[in-house]
Queue: 3 jobs
Job 1
Amino acid sequence: MVAVLAFCGVVVALMQTLVVPLLPHIPELTGSTPTAASWLVTVTLLTGAVCTPLLGRIGDMYGKRRVLLASLGVLVAGSVLCAISSHIAVLIAGRALQGAALAVVPLGISIMRDELPPARVLSSVALMSSTLGVGAAVGLPVAALVVEHADWHTMFWVSAGLGLLDILLVLWQVPESPLRSRGRFDVLGAVGLSAVLVALLLAVTQGADWGWASGRTLGLLAAAVVLGLLWGAYELRHSSPMVDMRVSARPAVLLANLAALLIGFSFYANSLVTAQMVQEPKATGYGLGASIVVSGLCLLPGGVSMVALSPLSARISAARGPKVTLAVAAVVMAVGYVVRFFTSHQLWMIIAGATVVSAGTAIAYSALPALVIRAVPAAETGAANGLNTLMRSVGQAVCSAVVAAVLANLTFQVGGRTAPTLHAYLVVFLVAAGAAVLALAVTLLMPGRRSGPGTAVPGPRGGDARRPAGVGEGRA
């Protein structure tokens, strides 16, 4: 079961980055504009952010396996749409459906909590959570190879096939959890949360193109704030809220979500700038003139390290608690960016620095669900992990906007074109390291509780199960 759910996570994460190497060619291939092409990434971010907490809540109420299968079905439908068309509107619609499948990861984590023996929960959740980074690291070089050597529709047919394989494997190996949360689905709360997220993420992702001081950007940001306040007030009064604001306001949950946002920001900078930096022409003085495939392969060792280190993260969490694990991860990520700051001229050193950052990300992504699981009721695991995954996505969206602004404003003329200066990339490394340091500070503020051997914590079926010290409760 664990291997099947982890494979589902890798496939879904791979979908998020599959189109990135294709973006420069989309206007020519589809007869569209670069602005329209950028929506192939933006719409995936939007639907993923909106659907992840919603589907997590639906899974808690009506069956996690059922919703997991539906999410994979949506992924297949979106992949087929992209595979059969070259029209930009159809491609955007297909990418929107693919983005909705991001809910697979928190749903898989919830199934593991419900079904596995307590001793296996931490290691399995660590592996499932790390798939977000693994899929992203693998997706770039694979997509680049397809773009260079095959028809670009091929990668969407492959993704559709992988989605179908996921569905068959889930039907074969993954049981339906009998654990359900009570109450009716909060439709108005779901609509309100969706409106807040769309307004916020549209402003963040499109602000650079529209202008940060433009009426559209400021209007959307203001709308996000006002709608957020109204939505929060409504949720507090609702008997069965979309998001339990009282649980989410607990220091353990609130700080875990803030840490997820900062870790998502720090991680995404590594993915965004590595490929672009090594592809810059040698005339810039720092670029290596590498191909799309080579630049994508620079992130592959990081993806391998994420798989290898997820068991280590689980062992640290079991022995010392997920709070300590997350603190270690933040330090590793900051160190990785320090390495990148001083070693930006040789390919092997760039790969080494990027891999260190990915290693820290693997440890962090594996620890975050454990922090959430120990702080929320078992019946709310899907919604709570969906919200935590959402915060990582918000962090990535903010990072994308910050990186784009830095690289667009610190430029120089070389070879008849405008290129970012080396200083621009170094600024990005410093900002990303700063985000990791802030994540460390947030982690240290998290409440920690000591527990002796055999502490009773929520078990797989919502009852009590005996877990070793550090599992579920952790030690500060």
Job 2
Amino acid sequence: MANATNENTQEFEVTIDGNEVQFKVTRSDYNKLVNQLGPGNKVNAFHNFLVSTVTDEGKQTLLKVLTDMPGSEIAIGTDIYEAYTPDLQVTVKKR
């Protein structure tokens, strides 16, 4: 569940393997992730994104999950990425 603190920063409470972990995502964090999501860099990009946005209280829990569960970077990171991304309806017409 996201709590919008301003238009560019959102806080998320994520339940990971039964543990509550808090993340604070800024527009800069989001933009950096998007810029790093090139071919072959997804795991590292999501890992860096999660580690840089998790609160101090949840860091050890997150790091344990990332170490013990391969692919968890993608699962957790994708959910936060999608929650941060605005739900826009865009229509493009070719002229």
Job 3
Amino acid sequence: MTECLLNIDLGELPDEDERLYAFAQVANIACGAHAGDDASMRRALELCARHGTRACAHPSYEDREGFGRRALDVAPDLLRGQVASQCARLARLAREQRVPVVFVKPHGALYHAANASPALARALVAGVVEALGSGITLIAPPTGALRDAAIDAGLPHAREAFADRGTRSDGSLIPRGQPGAVLTDAARVRENAVRLATQGDIDTLCVHGDTPGAVELAREVRSTLDALALPIQALGDGALRFSLPDTVERRAAREVLKALPGVVDAVVTEQHACVYFDPSAPPEEPRLALARLLNAPMAPAVRTLVTLRIRYDGPDLEKVAARAGLSVDDVAQLHAAREYTVRCVGFLPGFAYLGELDPRIVVPRLPTPRMRVPALAVGIAGARTGVYPFASPGGWSLIGTAMDFTAFHPDRGAVLQLGDRVRFERVG
């Protein structure tokens, strides 16, 4: 699927939570007809700038008393002028704030009335183009008069569905005021978001800023969409690999993925996560298991500090020193001065990639790997250092030997785990 954006109706309430702008990728800013004024629009634009949220004009029927959710009988020519006036008002303030308005989305009853009436849809689009130009993207339902009017006018358009609204069996929204019209349970909204985002014809999902619990609902939908947007590929029939953003805590990701039904193992590297499973029983969308890790604050993890005693006697130590323009003693001191973090575990059972190495002693991998590196040899390559747990081939420059260290236990697995801290104590 292509990326599906979260849009949120904002600038409508006096006590609006700023976190909504952090979760929204598109902020639909009330333009004064159903809600909002110059002060609220300025605040909304300022928050868009602060959080990198794209600004969207949100024009409505002129109906503050009914919050723009009542169908009004407005002639197309009059509607065109009203829409143009509202959008121009936001555009003027946006220029002052140097925030571009890149989307437009009609609000409430106007959204539905214009989508059902070609005349109203054409009038609305004409008003939008008059105020915002022909490069603006119209957010509208996947089918109907609004989409057709955008196409006829040459406007880009984004197909929308509503994460926090219930639908009838024919796919239409349950009218507000009826049971099930507004979804406030986070689990139901999350399920709705998955269903809508994966059906293939939706570009953006909406959460209403005035829905009870809107902040938590927005968090759920944004996390879900971010998870589904992670690039994924199949590795044969029994494995999937997908990219991991830097914000995801690696050990937590591995634990979450390993706990999925049907997953045999999960391997997390610096850039990716891989899940391995029985091809006859693949897990349901594994990326969704990471959703709560993407946009939810996590308590600082307590990590083990491991001290490894090391003798700096490696066969490549002098070459590393010569390349860096340092003495052998300097290299040893720089290597032992840092506290490292386990970035990933792999290559060999218990082989921990430790970073970050002091940049003064960074060296590339050997052009020709050794056929045999002795067990417990300490190597460096690029910005990483590590200890070979077993004798094996290897292409890292060897600068020392770890003393009295067992990197892997057959019954307990790797000693060093993702996120653990490691220090080297120089001996000899």
